[in-house]
Write a structure and sequence with these properties.
heteropentamer; A alpha/beta (about 325); B mainly alpha (about 325); C mainly alpha (about 350); D alpha/beta (about 350); E alpha+beta (about 600); B: about 325 residues; mainly alpha; 12 helices; E: about 600 residues; alpha+beta; five-stranded mixed sheet; four-stranded antiparallel sheet; 17 helices; about 25% helix; globular
Amino acid sequence: MTSEVLLEGKELIKYFPHGSKGIFGKPDGFVQAVDGVNIILRKGQTLGIVGESGCGKSTLARVLTRLIDPTSGSIFLEGQDITKVNGKELQVLRRDIQMIFQDPYSSLNPRHSVGEIIATPMRIQKILPKGSEKLRVQELMELVGLNPEHYNRYPHEFSGGQRQRIGIARALALNPKVIVADEPVSALDVSIQAQILNLLEQLQHDLGLSYVFIAHDLSVVRHIADEVAVMYLGKVVELARPDALYSAPSHPYSKALLSAVPSATPRSSHMHSRIVLQGDVPSPINPPNGCRFAARCWKAKDSCIAQEPSLQSHGEIPDENVGLVACHFPEISN
Amino acid sequence: MSTTEATVGELHEYALIESKSPGRLAWERFRRDRVAVVASFVVLFFVGIALFAPLVCKALGINPLTLDRKALNDFGLPNGPFGAMSRKHLLGVEPGTGRDILARLIYGARISLFVGFVSTLLTTVIGVVLGIVAGYRRGKIDAVISRFTDLTLAFPSLLLIIALTRPFTQRLESLGVPEGNPARLTYIILVLSLFGWVYVARIVRGQTLALREREFVEAARASGAGHWHMVFKELLPNIWAPIIVIVSLSLPGYVAVESTLSFLGVGLLPPDASWGVMLGDSVKYYRADPTYLFVPGVALIVLVLAFNVMGDGIRDALDPKSDRQQLG
Amino acid sequence: MSAKVGTPLFYSPLSYLRIALITFIARRLLFALVLLAAVSLFTYLLFALLPTDPAALTCGKNCKPELIEANRVRLGYDKPIHEQYFQFVKGIFTGRTYGTGDIAFTCPAPSLGYSFNQHECVSSLIGKTFPVTAFLSLGAFILWMLLGVGTGTLAALHRGKWQDRLTSVITSIGVSLPTFYVGLLVLFSVVIWLQWLPFPHYASPSENLHDFLTAMILPWITLAVLSAASYTRITRNGVLEAMNEDFVRFGVAKGLKNRTVIRKYVLRAALIPIVTIAGLDFAALLGGAIVTESVFSLPGMGRLAIRSVTDSDLPVLVGTTLVAAVFIVMANTIVDIIYGILDPRVRLK
Amino acid sequence: MNNVRLLSVENLNVEFSTSDGVVHAVNDVSFSVHSGKTLGIVGESGSGKSVTASSILKLNTGITASTSGSILFNGKNILGVDDKAIRAIRGSEIAMIFQDPLSALNPYYTIGSQIIEAYKVHHKGVKKKEARKIALEMLHRVGIPNPEARIDEYPHQFSGGMRQRIVIATALINSPKLLIADEPTTALDVTVQAQILDLMKDIQRENGMAIILITHDLGVVAETCDDVAVMYGGRIVEKASVQELFVTPTHPYSFGLLGAVRSLDNSARGELQTIAGSPPSLLNLPSGCSFLPRCSYADASRQQCASFVPPLQNVLPTNSLSACHLRAEALNVLKIKEPS
Amino acid sequence: MKRRIIGLLGLALSASLIASACGSDSSSSSDTAASTDTLAIPGTDSSTPTAGGTIHILSQLEQITHLDPQRNYTGSDLAFVGSTMQRALTSYAYAPGSAGSQLVGDLATDTGTPTEGGKVWSFTLRGGATYEDGSEVTCADIAYGTSRVFATDIIVDGPTYAISYLDIPQDADGNSNYPGPYTATADQQALFDKAVSCSEDGKTITFTLSRIVADFNYTVTLLAFSPVPKAKDTGEKYDMAPVSSGPYKIESYEPGKSLVLVRNENWSKASDPIRNAYADSFVYEFALDPAVIDERLMADAGDDQYAVGDGGLQPENLQTVFTDDRFKDRRQDDYDPYVSFTAFNVKTVSCVEVRRAVYLGLDREALRTAGGGPYTGDFADGFVKPALADDYAPSKLPEGLNTDGTPNIESAKAALAEAKTKCPDVYAKATVEGLKFFHPDTPIWQKLVSIWIESLKAVGIVIKPTAVEPSKYYPTVQNEETDYDISRGAWGPDWPNASTMIPELFLTTGGFNLTRNGDDPAYKQFETDTKAALNELDRKAQGKKWQALNQFLVDQLWSIPGTFTKAQDLWGSKVGNAYRWSSSGSFLFGELYVKQ
């Protein structure tokens, strides 16, 4: 199932200056938050991005939405380079790429009513919806499962799940082509997470949306994504279809990550063969040479430190289900 | 979830559920705070008599300028106990001139509150604008404003205010500000604002920096919001609470500074009175006429307390922490 | 500082800790120097651009234009402003000689100018008065911190009870009454009505410690009470906030005594924001000192300054403003450094 | 492992009065913990699980909190003892660790001093040197590499996982009989979570302490706990062994929760199982079963469910207890609706 | 009133700018000021003066205005410095009451010998006087001291009689050809040395004057004629550490804090017939709040038992002090040498009817009450105090002026109506535009100005106040360019002759003329008559001329007479000799002693 490429990030790099020790306050290093990432989002599909904190996934989301500028690399939307778009053009571009945020408390302005919050993007973009703004907002509210009669209510009157629906309605207000969702359910209770995920899927289905879906929780991505990119220390280490990834991860890190997830099955009833990684994620300021995972990898050899593995297919016959992996010694599954 | 059925043509007006905005909620919380409500009435009362000073004095049959020799004894001191309080002079008379203290207090409230209000307004506006700009734009602009703040804070402000009073009022007069008290008051308000904005700006900058990290600011940016929208729609509405508290606390502070300037000899000119002038004058009579010492002092304390209690009430009412429960 | 808590601050074998602190301090000092340069320039320009002719103020009623002119040359007021400023700055480092021949006189470094009204070098005038102001401000500062932190903690620990309400009322009054009014009330009530103390009679501490203390106690109290008011509020809020911190709960969960938790956990956390603003409020404290010195007849720099205002004694004004600014900047810098020491996160970031 | 009943909580109620009304955070909660065992308390935010945990150490001391019921620890009612006695228990007999390892450590002191302090407060008169040695051992035990070098560093110099290890070291330095872990891994990444859970299990295996593990994550419960109490709306709605809960849940809420998690874990694309609606506010609890508004099983018994709170009862021939009016029918219903 | 314009903060008016000095007639005390003697009784009680102890002087001033004898010019400073550290050729007797107006020799053996009808004055030195370093006071030192007055760039603020009287040529602008000792060439120095010369034996000093000055021996009581040893002269800085020739010397001097005097061991009583020097030391405490001074004196505790104030009581404390018998032995209420007045700018308020309307309509009673009621002083009927008995005569005040000081609105309005037709411009200015009143920016003046505004409002005259920094008040109003309409001042005679009052206040060349009356039609007449009075050698005849001129001034109303001012004092219970020295109007500080 291949459809046309909607959003593409090529060789994206984002470094942040770090610290200012020394008397004259020059930065003494750079946080290599995103370091050479290539991703592709196809129309109507969901690209999942997973990784632990500090792996650069949120930075990537913000680079893709042009909330921050990449240090280098390019972003293409429908084949058009939007990396350098600015001013008026950027403002128009914003209609096409919208974002859903992680924290349903901090992502809604507490001083604005729900109606205002959802209408804000339309007001900013000066898009006058047919009928009236209010009708459009209420339509959106209904669309995300909110009671349109709550138009005048304020965020504090809603529960976390409802707030996240407001955030989704806001993202939908401009009929975007791409929605980048940055951990949209990680702050929610389990019973609510499922509601939101269902909603997002339904919307995708009904409105033909394309998502970049960022999460640290593998199970969440598994459910919604068409393709999953696993990130580690600013790099994509594995890119695969979820079924393949979850049943047979190729990268040792993916494998460890999967095995670390506690499963909701009592201990004695499942095979306890979990890989517990040793040590901490190295600092992104001066990441190790070669394979960044090498220091924690049980398969690492000298060559891993010497040479950085590139993201490529390792299957016998390159096919979609195997995907791409950046490892010198990938797990080969049968 | 049967939501997607609704199509454009079938849209209808929804009944809207009555809802309470955070402001409205705060207002309700404030209304429940009885002490704060009383305090607000006291503030309103003071503001009222200040605004309508001529009417109030006329109704009471008193005048802040009328001399009353009969109320004074041969030493020039009030001729009677408690500062010669009488039906004619409800709070007694001023030593030396026999002018009615109540009337002077009422007219004095005018000037003191005027200085307080305008200084507070200016400081707040300057402080909020610069604070938001610094916190919002960050980078070089922030650096410039912050360094400017540091510089302002490094000056001994009171000393400069006193030292520059006369030359600067003269300069103001030469620029067309009416001579005398208008020029003096203009100067006082200007310098108080010049030194006062720093404190507001620091707080607002801090708040803005914190707000910037909130995702709704990012959300607005993701929708293409410009600076204007950002500042006025997203940031400002969220820093009203600290601003209101600053206002309620700094206003009486400025009344006090004005009186200090009068005490140090660079305040208001006669025959007008401000509370500061009265306080400065009254301390000399602590022995001869203690009533005079206490009347303006008590008035100031009541006003200050009222403002502070009201400010505390507003803060409690606006306190975002009571907006959500953090119980596990 | 963590000396009490088992290990001395610099125990760590990691010299990097020490280096971090040293660079931190060095940066603060450098910043202070730059700030001082800016302050001196601004002060000098501000007064130099006043519409008053400094030379005209150098002689009394028999003054003749020629004499004013002579003094103008003698004091260097005939030169362009930037040169005057340069001379002024140079004087701070090398001293300065005014005029030539018999009537020349020299102010040794650090020279801040010469007061014609008082026939003395500004630096020596300030040298005599500064200690008083320094004693006054520092003493008040300490008392103010103790009072503010003490009552603020008290109020927070008894949140909502009468102790809290009382401090709230007192601080509300204290924070906004003018210093002179409170000062005179204190003076009159303690000295005249209650006769607990003799009339203050300032003596330097080395001269007569008893006189020094009896003269300073009331000014200290006055100044401290006024400034402490706002610190009571800040402390109260800080303590309340800190008490919600997880590490405080963890401290309690360790089985520590309440006193220990408050001292080591709550106050430490609450004090840090206080320390940062305390530096800023030093300017206000100095302002209060000016008034307090007037009320209590203390021969300090504030009174010198007020006097020079009434006499239009420009060199003294410039000098006192500058010294006050140095004082403020120094206080700020010290506070910043203390902040760095108190909060390891600042220096080790 | 001995099976001594170490702690039993009976009819615990905790209320907070706020400006908006009384918050009934914990209602009539009873449970017990045995030495060497781990009790999981599961619930979503606002279910009252953290307040319950804090009550055990009397940490809800604000003037707005009022607590009733009894908490028997080694036969002694903790709620009845004075400050001094509870201080002797805190940190030495019962230790507690918190969700956010950064904020649980005092940022102004070195980690060493904080651990030593925790030791010395219950070992009066111990020399500083000795305490330091014990602290070093403990740090080593919890897996801090090179503890000699790092003991004098400050909390912010450590990573999140390391901090939680330090917190655990501090909590365990006095070998407590009971460890209350309040969402100890929520703030951590999964790989780190695995490390920390392993560590806790190891230690428990070594010294036989009891653990109360508070979490919202059923996966963590499944991996770590022996028994589980499911909380909802300030009440325990189901109490069971881990096996029982995961195999035969007896309360519609537990069932729904399990379903949501499992469908997330297992299913590929397709509709996820959910529980409709949102958790109740503890401010205005419904008069009857607080789960009723979200319960899809209560059709027949709605009247009864709405009128009074169901007691915690045995519904199956197992040991599980369920607070549901449906009881007998419940099982059948749940089974019927269980996805294939 | 002079001191009353001093602010609470010690924003002291530089008193020298009011230029005043000592004096009341030596021979007779006047009838109207008769109360002086009776009121002075508390200070001169029966206890016998004893030596020892320390006298404290409490002051709101920041420092002694000038310690440099040539620059010293205010009543209390002259009394303090003169009685402790600086001797002059002559002095008034150190005695209470009218005896204190007696002229006696000090460094000179007698009160001087005039020759050439008073154009040349010689004084014979007593000899034996020494400075604090033990060296002798010589005739040359007196001449040198006198010569310093001419160095007007350094020796500022002092009296300049030496310049105007001594026979040294002047240029067209009135500047002396002698520039003072610091910069004089030999030729210029010779000019001075010719006018002031010492005899061969150094026993006699002779002053040659440019005109007859019949009472030059009074002039030399001023410390401007005191000796300064040339070798010790530090010019500008001499002010801070002058060399003492009196019984005390400076131990320490910190302006803003204190001046401590201790005995000058090299002073010998034998050479000084007038000073008694009872106390061992003096401590002058500066920069005290005047309210605090009053309180300390009232409390009379500790060292304050040995204290006096140098500024009189504050009006707000008069009631407390004068109605409480606790204080009856240590208080006094007495006239000081000053007359207060309000000066018009005759150039802008050129209409005598308007000036009269102001005088008639002004609530002088309220003004006086604000200053302490009768304690402020008596309503003045002119510019010559009754104490100058030869020169004083009651004057005829404008018709309709209420003697009790209350305003006479009708008469004032009538005068104003007259002005409306006679001088419509000034009328319009007074009633519409307003008269600019320059006043010192002090608390008491805030009230006084309010009374001015309020009371003249009833007449229809508008007063526009302008507050001037206290220390700059006199320089401001004395500046020709300042455009005030009304200003105020107070003046006291330098010695008992109206020649130090009327010409100083009203001649265009006078030292303190605030009226700008040079263009007034009546001025020529006034100038001629004044010159005549100055040159009149017969004292009685001269007095008559002053009396006539005083009446002339009251008729012209270039200035409105204010009060013959009084001052009140309180002192510590253990202070002896606390009498008001009539020549200075202050305590005779050096004679104070500690009661055993």
